C-alpha cells in the first residue's frame, strides 16, 4: 500500500490545525517592541513598516495591525535610531 495518501492526509490535517491557531493580538505584538531597540531589531521582531515618516527630524514606523490592518501603531525612534516609544495610532509628521 502506498504511503502517499496517508502523507497527504497528515499534511492536510497539519495545515488545517495551523489555521486554527491563536491570532496574535496587535497589543501583544507592540508589547514586544521595547525602548532602546534599534530599527533593525524592530524589523526582525515585527517586520518592515507599512509606512515611514519623519517627525521633528526623527523616524517613525507606521504599522497597520489586526485582522484587517485596522489597528494603527506607531514606533518612534530617537536621534540614535533607537525606539523612544510606541503609540496606538498613526505617526505624526511627513511621509517619506
UniProtKB/TrEMBL annotation:
The keyword Signal applies. This is Lipoprotein SmpA/OmlA domain-containing protein. Residues 1-18 form the signal peptide. Keywords: Signal.
Amino acid at each position: 500500500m502506498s504511503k502517499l495518501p496517508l502523507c497527504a492526509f497528515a499534511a492536510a490535517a497539519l495545515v488545517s490545525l495551523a489555521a486554527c491557531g491563536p491570532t496574535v493580538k496587535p497589543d501583544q505584538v507592540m508589547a514586544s517592541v521595547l525602548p532602546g531597540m534599534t530599527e533593525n531589531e524592530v524589523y526582525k521582531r515585527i517586520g518592515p513598516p507599512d509606512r515611514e515618516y519623519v517627525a521633528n527630524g526623527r523616524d517613525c514606523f507606521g504599522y497597520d495591525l489586526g485582522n484587517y490592518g485596522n489597528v494603527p501603531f506607531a514606533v518612534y525612534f530617537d536621534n540614535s535610531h533607537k525606539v523612544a516609544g510606541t503609540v496606538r495610532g498613526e505617526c505624526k509628521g511627513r511621509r517619506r
